[in-house]
Design brief:
alpha/beta, Arc Repressor Mutant, subunit A, 12 strands, Rossmann fold, 8 helices, single chain, elongated
């Protein structure tokens, strides 16, 4: 009798777009690559799916009737919802930065090829797995300035004990800082460490992620944890310990 192979359940993806033919085309392509797909044409339909099924990743259009994608992105991010890839015909840098600022894990301008979208999906889900503690090279927890970052539960706790919600991107970025404390890291280094060099991310994306992460840390401590060195990069200025 051969070895028993345990089949893992398919990762569940929700495509939210008011363009019926486009969302069905995207869903069909991703389903052919082994993902479980769900479809929604607006915020109400999206909420019905989220209430009935655990979703790993939302592919979210920006321009929709009713509640738009940016508002939905902010709401899902603030509630600690699934990872988000935003897609939009508005491809200007300011729109991408705004999407990332509101909590998106990645942002693609329309039209985008299904192959590129698939690559982004794989990259975001891989970072999500690492954030949940599936990266064996990392310790199980980090401690700094009274904070605790639990690598298994993907959870940051403030000195008061309160949980601080982090997006997958923020978690990966904080993990990179904690592995290289009190050392100046350039944007390119942070991109490689936090995103694995897989996504086509421009420099401003790192600035946005760091700004969000800095605000969350500064709300719980008087210390300036993340320092900016113009022309050089960023430094995580805290003593870090781990078991």
């Amino acid at each position: 009798m051969g070895p028993v192979v345990k089949m893992l359940p398919a990762r569940q993806i929700l495509v939210v777009d008011d363009d019926t033919s486009l969302r069905e085309h995207v869903a069909g392509y991703l389903a052919d690559h082994g993902y479980g797909l769900h479809l929604a044409g607006n915020a109400g339909e999206m909420e019905a799916v989220l209430g009935a099924t655990p979703i790993d990743l939302v592919i979210l259009d920006v321009m929709m009737p009713g509640e738009d994608g940016l508002s939905i992105c902010r709401r899902l991010s603030e509630s600690g919802g699934p990872a988000i890839i935003m897609v939009s015909a508005m491809g200007e840098e300011i729109d991408r930065v705004l999407g990332l600022e509101l909590g998106a894990d990645d942002y693609l301008p329309k039209p985008c090829s299904p192959r590129e979208l698939l690559a982004r999906v794989k990259a975001v889900l891989r970072r999500q797995d690492e954030a949940r503690g599936d990266a064996p090279k990392r310790g199980k927890a980090y401690y700094f300035l009274g904070f605790t970052l639990d690598m298994v539960r993907r959870q940051l706790r403030a000195p008061s004990g309160a949980a601080i919600l982090l997006t997958a991107g923020e978690f990966s970025l904080l993990s990179a800082f904690l592995e290289h404390p009190q050392r100046i890291l350039s944007r390119d280094q942070l991109l490689d460490m936090a995103r694995g060099g897989e996504a086509d991310v421009f420099d401003r994306a790192i600035d946005v992620q760091i700004s969000r992460l800095r605000r969350k840390l500064n709300a719980c401590t008087d210390e300036e944890v993340i320092k900016t060195y113009r022309g050089a990069g960023y430094l995580f200025d805290a003593k870090v310990t781990r078991p």
